[in-house]
Structure to design on (125 residues):
C-alpha cells in the first residue's frame, strides 16, 4: 500500500447492564470493503444465534435478513453503522466506521539496529 486506502474499522463491544461498568472492547477488525465489514458482523451473529434467547435471536435474524441490506447501503455511502442486541443483561454492539488506512513503513530492506539481533526469547516458566 503506497497511499491512503479507504476501509472500515469494525469493533465488537459488550456491556453488562447490571454492573454499571463501561462497555468492554472484545474484538476489532480492519475491513477493506463494505461486504467484508458487514460479513464480519453476520458471521458472528450466525455463530452466536443458537445461544441467544428468543428476543435477542429475533433481533439478530431481523438484522441478518433485512437490516444487513440497509447496513451495506450505508457502508457503501461511507457512513458509520451500529448493530446492537441484548441478551439477558448483556448488550453486544458491533460498530463499523469508515476510515482511511495510512500505510506503514516496510521493514524489508531496512537495516535493523544491532540490538535487534541480540534478542533471545525467554523460556516459559
Amino acid at each position: 500500500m503506497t497511499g491512503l486506502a479507504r476501509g472500515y474499522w469494525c469493533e465488537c463491544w459488550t456491556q453488562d447492564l447490571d454492573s454499571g461498568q463501561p462497555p468492554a472492547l472484545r474484538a476489532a477488525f480492519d475491513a477493506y470493503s463494505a461486504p467484508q465489514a458487514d460479513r464480519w458482523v453476520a458471521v458472528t451473529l450466525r455463530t452466536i444465534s443458537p445461544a441467544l434467547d428468543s428476543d435477542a435471536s429475533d433481533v439478530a435474524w431481523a438484522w441478518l435478513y433485512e437490516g444487513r441490506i440497509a447496513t451495506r447501503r450505508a457502508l457503501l455511502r461511507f457512513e458509520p453503522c451500529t448493530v446492537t442486541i441484548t441478551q439477558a443483561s448483556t448488550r453486544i454492539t458491533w460498530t463499523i466506521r469508515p476510515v482511511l488506512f495510512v500505510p506503514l513503513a516496510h521493514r524489508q530492506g531496512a537495516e535493523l539496529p544491532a540490538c535487534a539481533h541480540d534478542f533471545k526469547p525467554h523460556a516459559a516458566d
Summary: The chain has a mean pLDDT of 88. Helices lie at 34-48, 54-76. The two ends are 40 Å apart (CA to CA).
